[in-house]
Amino acid sequence: MEPLSIVILIVALLIVIEVVVMLLKLKVDKMLLLMPVIGVIFATMSFALNEYRDEILSSLSDSASSIVIYVTLAVGVIFGLFGVTVWFRGEKGARKLVLDAKKIDSTVAGIESDIRGSDMEIDHFDDEMSAIKTKIADYESKEKEV
Amino acid sequence: MEKGEDTVNRIVIGIGGQGSSIVNNILRMLKVKTGKIPKNEEFLIIDTDQASASACTEVEERKKIILSRPDTILMKNTNRWLPDPYLSAAGAGCGQHRIYGRAMYNVHRERIFSAIGSAASELKNRTGGKDFFIVMVCAFGGGTGSSMLLDVAIDIRDWISKQFGSEPVMFGIGILPSSKESVLPTGNALGTLKELYFLMSHTEDVIIDDKNYSNPFKLFFLLGRDLQGQNRDDELERAIPRFLLDLGFLPGGTVETKGKWLDLNDLQNRARGYENRFDSLGYYECVFPTEKLFLYYDIEDEIPRVRQRLVEIEARISDIKGKIESERGELERFDGRIKDVQRKIDSYESATGKLYHADMTATADAKAKLDRARKKLSGLKEEVLNLEIRASDAEEEKRLTERDLERLEALKNKLLRAITSPQNTRSYHQIELSEEEIKGLKKSREDVKNLSFFEIMKKLDREEEFFRWTHAPINEGDIIFNPMVNYRHSIENVMASKYIDILHDYGFLTLDAQGNVVNEEEKFGHFIAVLSTRADNFDDARLGGGAFKSMVTERFTKDADVLKLDAPARAHSFAIYTLMIGLQPWAPGPGLPPRLRELEWLEKAYNESDFSKLQRHHSLFYGTPKPFSVISGIPYTPGVDEKNRDTVTNYWKGYEILEKEAIWNNVPIVLAQCLKMFDDLLTGLDMAEDIKNVRIPEPESYSIANLTILVHGLENASKSMEKVKKWTKDAERGFTLLKNELDELVFKLKGIEAEAPAEDKAEKMLRMTDDSSRNMEVLIDRIDDLSNRFSDDIKSVIEKAMSFIGGIPSEETTSSAIRHITKAESEISRMREDSMKAAKGIKEMGGPLAMMLSSLKELKNITESGESEVEVEAEVVEGWEGKMRMKREGKGIEMPDLSLNMGRGEEE
Fold first, then answer.
1. Can you tell me whether residue B511 is helix, strand or coil?
2. Are B281 and B221 in contact (CB under 8 A)?
3. Distance from CA of A141 to the nearest CA of B (A)
4. Which CATH number do you get for residue B895?
């Protein structure tokens, strides 16, 4: 097998892996899954053309047949990449939204803890002032006793 | 008494509003001191006023015997003797009507006894002991306590004796009203005193209808509410619980004391023989103000700390408020941001197409976070609002605390004043400290706690003062004078100046170098002083038992006991408790104030009540005519309730708080008054005699100088005549008063069937009586003589003067001479007129004198035999008066008669 076929096979294999991953791990729309599948088909076509170029593309010159093979492979790769790119864009948007929500949530939580802290502080002041008052009342009652 | 050994059951009963309040105070003090009530003590209150009983918060509800007012039908059915106006009462409780209180007692008697009985049984079950000690406290001015005291005391004594086989030891404490109180309470108090004294004077059993009417009390303490115009309620409320607890009558309070010092048996032994007299108590205390000082130091240190802390708190609150403001803005902004993100999520989700990827898990997560933030946000807005309110409240609280701090500052200043210039009285002396001394002692405050009173004073270079103030109450007699009743120790000054020399001459009084009366203290009965302080202070003060006792007995008392009470907690206090046992409250002589000053206003108010109002002041024996009749010897009519009630009222009206032996003390005082009056009369007679010695020139010796001498002489004689006229009037009035006093004394001596006085006293009294009679005879002779010739003497003077004027030659009647003659004639005319009145006055002295002589003889007979042999003298007096009448008829008014002489002659 000539080296180009091996390269095409690797590309195709990568796109297959992409399909499998998208199918199994990334819950993507089936239309979006079609893109890498098409990419696999083109890669397969490119492999086939390369392997049987003497039979299928015999009418074409060597350079023209290479162009066909490469273009087919490129179309396959483009379809494969397009799927990945669309998925990545969607994921990026979602992550941003989550981040925004999380930021709001954590800032609000920060304010909440601040407020709770102040509340506790005021509680403490109240207790402290009440203790002062009790102490003063104690002094007053002691003064009556002495 | 050692702790744990005491099995005597003790019951404290407060009757009426003030009695209940004192019991409440005792309980409070017990709880503060020991935290619990000893198992052998029970505290009960009996009251007819719900509100007053409810205020006694320390007393258990089941130990409050609250008597509700019954309807008038029940009241009348139970008390047939009760007058209609008293079937109900106005105001609270018994409306200060003792008669109503008695009726209430009759209605609720069973309830009262069931409550007291169950308390006594509970006590007996708890302790196993059958000995009971009962203290009863009440005010004498109110309606409830004063009316029920005696009945409760008699009944409870009988009940406990029968139930448990041993008679309880009973102490009473009665509070007298102040001089500022109205007629009702003061009259009530005398009514109560009369009835109480009546019971107390029956020292032997008097059992009538299975009820013993003898004295139920071993000791009865009288306490006054004011002393020399000062209200002593505060002192009373402190002193009674303190007396009972500190001195161990209620041993719950003796935790501070060491060893045995005085127990009930001791006290009973000391009071033996004085059960029928009243008692009182008091205390003197000299203190170093350690507690005040330490409190002052604590406050002084505390104030800057608190002030600093409040400043910090203020700054923090201010920070919090700023933060709240910024957080509120932030929360508002977050509201917008949440909306933005929500919008983004919505658009992210809605943008889904065929070639679009949206991560729904992530958006769900984002939405959840957002929701949570939104919820938190709305909660936080509320919290911020609350926080703001709380911050404002905290600010307000801080302002209030600052005000409290100002109060603390004021308290510090007050304490400083109390330490630097204490309000000392006769019964309380606090050592005064300067500000430098206060500062100086602060440096060694921990040492001061452990030093003795004397050592602190030494540290301040003031040890001499320690001796002064611990010895002052003894040297100045304050330990005698500070009891809680207004008791007069010796004869009043006004009395002293008049009669004291005479009493001294006859050996009835002993005077010290300053002329003060001594040995009067025997009338105290028994005097007990208890020194209460930490042991080392006794030695430091050099007031050991012997030294103290000799100081007291040498200067003030014949009979005194001095006891030491080692109270370890009293390191810086030197207290002297006093118990005066066997007081005589009555007047030492006719016309003299009673020894118990309170009796003055009590008697006044009581005597102002007419008969119909008098019954409201009494309680004892209403509705029980039979025992009354048996004890008093006054017959009663069965079934005639109103008549019997009036008989009882009448009896109380005439009943006097007087002791048989004490009446003899009056005799020398009345005789001293007689002797003094005779001296005064002799002086007056000399003055009358002197009138005839006016210088009248001879008629033939006329000159203008002699005329002037005549006018001056007549003027002087006229003035003397005026004085004699006034003197005769005063003397007559004085004789009448003295005669009344003598008669009253003789009447009392006969009435109480007094036994003859002690031999030495009788001898002195007889000597005084004989001297008085002899003086009177001299006086009668002088009056006889003078009244015989007074008119003649005056007539002779007038005739001589007229003769001189008549002999003035007509050529000598110059204008100046005429003026003198006119003046002389005017004086003669005045003398003639006054001489008639003076002669009449001198003559009329004879009547009272004769009567007094008769009374003196009667007194002499009683003194000699202790019995009355009165009838003899009546004839003599009758004889004299008859003769006087004959003479008066035979002679004109101008001529004094001689009947006194004849009468005396017959007597002789």
1. strand
2. yes
3. 11
4. 1.20.58
DSSP per-residue codes, B11-68 = EEEEEHHHHHHHHHHHHHHHHHHHSS--TTEEEEEEES-HHHHHT-TTS-GGGEEEPP
CA distance B869 to B863: 11
Please report whether residue B591 resides in a domain.
no
Between chain A and chain B, how many beta carbons pairs sit less than 8 Å apart? Answer: 171
Secondary structure tally for chain A: helices H, strands E: 4, 0
Domain for residue B596, yes or no?
no
The tens digit of pLDDT for each residue in A14-60 reads 999 988 888 887 777 777 888 889 999 999 999 999 888 888 888 88
Indicate if B83 and B25 belong to the same structural domain.
Answer: yes
Residues B316 and B254 in one domain: no
The answer as to whether B636 is a domain residue is no
Nearest chain A CA: its distance from B184 CA (Å) = 34
CB-CB contact of B594 with B487 (8 Å):
no
* pLDDT value of residue B879: 38
**Which chain A positions have a beta carbon within 8 Å of B301's beta carbon?**
none
| Prediction ipTM score | 0.77
In a domain, B714, yes or no: yes
Rounded CA-CA distance A104/B336 in Å is: 11
Residues B760 and B867 in one domain: yes
Domain boundary among B218, B248, B277: B277
Euclidean distance between CA atoms B612 and B317, whole angstroms: 74
For residues B275 and B253, give the distance between their C-alpha atoms in angstroms, rounded to a whole number: 26
Shortest CA gap A76–chain B (Å): 17
- Residue B15 in this model has a pLDDT that exceeds 90: yes
Contacts of A9 by beta carbon, 8 Å cutoff, 6+ apart: A47
Count of domains in chain A? 1
Domain extent at residue B405? 291-420
Do B91 and B33 share a domain, yes or no? yes
Same domain, B410 and B449: no
Q: Residues B685-694: what's their mean pLDDT?
A: 82
Pair (B550, B573) in one structural domain: yes
For B553-601, give the DSSP string.
HHHT-SSEEEEEEE-TT-TTEEEEEEEEEEE--S-SSTTSPPSBTHHHH
The total domain count for chain B is 4
- Residue A79's identity, in one-letter code, is F
Please list every residue in chain A whose beta carbon sits closer than 8 Å to the beta carbon of residue B404. Answer: 132-133, 136
Closest CA–CA distance from residue B363 to any residue of chain A (Å): 6
Judged by CB atoms within 8 Å, which residues 326-355 of B form the interface with A?
A: 327, 330-331, 334, 337-338, 340-341, 344-345, 348, 352, 354-355
The answer to whether A140 contacts B367, with C-beta atoms less than 8 Å apart, is no
CA distance A78 to A84: 10
B43 touches B73 (CB < 8 A): no
Q: Is the pLDDT of residue B893 over 50?
A: no
What CATH number should be reported for the domain holding residue B25? 3.40.50.1440
Q: Are residues B250 and B365 in the same domain?
A: no
pTM of the model: 0.66
Residue B893 in contact with partner chain A when CB distance is under 8 A: no
Interval B206-247: pLDDT, tens: 898 888 999 999 999 999 987 666 777 777 887 788 788 877
Shortest Cα–Cα distance, B380 to chain A (Å) = 6
Q: Which residues of chain B does A109 touch, with a Cβ-Cβ cutoff of 8 Å?
A: 376
From chain B, the residues in CB contact with A112 under 8 A are: 376, 379-380, 383
Burial class of residue B409, CB neighbours in 10 A (0-12, 13-18, 19+): middle
Q: With CB atoms and an 8 Å threshold, state whether A132 touches B337.
A: no
B745-792, pLDDT tens digit by residue?
Answer: 888 787 666 567 777 788 888 999 999 888 888 888 888 888 878 888
Domain that holds residue A132: 3-145
Same domain, B440 and B521: yes
